[in-house]
Amino acid sequence: LASVKGFGIVFSDVDKANSTFLEFFDNNKSLGKYYVPAHDNSSKFSFLGIYFPEGAVTRVQVSHEGKLADSEKDITQGGNNDLVVLDDFIYSEPQKL
Questions:
Q1: Counting beta carbons within 10 angstroms of the beta carbon of residue 13, is it exposed (0 to 12), middle (13 to 18) or buried (19 or more)?
Q2: What are the φ and ψ backbone dihedral angles of 77, each rounded to 5 degrees?
Q3: Which helix (H) or strand (E) is 22 found in, with range?
Q4: pLDDT the model gives residue 67
């Protein structure tokens, strides 16, 4: 088992605030749920990264409320749900527990 001090993800096309989040865990203990900011008009990208100085992160859950069915349109195309894409994953050097 290993832990990291920091973890982050670059997201593409988060249109809705409070719809996408990362929850961090130290084994089964939640360290908190953090929402990805919706992108602004200058970019389609959002970033969320959290640093824990004690290095206790052993698991990260990525969640999103939207799901697109086949041929369903994204919210930016007039649909009801938001398609979100995860791009780069950034994390500190894992430390063996």
A1: middle
A2: -105, 15
A3: strand 20-26
A4: 67
Q: Is residue 38 classed as helix, strand or coil in its secondary structure?
A: coil
pTM for the structure as a whole: 0.87
* Three-class SS state of 93: coil
Q: How many CA atoms lie within 13 A of 97 on its CB side?
A: 12
| Residue with the two structure tokens 């938001």 | 82
With beta carbons less than 8 A apart as the criterion, state whether 6 and 21 touch.
no
Dump pLDDT digits (tens) for 34-86: 999 999 999 999 999 999 998 799 999 999 877 666 778 888 888 888 888 89
Give residue 97's pLDDT: 86
Question: Per residue in 47-77, is it b (16+ CB within 10 Å) or e — as a string?
Answer: bbeeebeebbbbebeeebebeeeeeeebbee
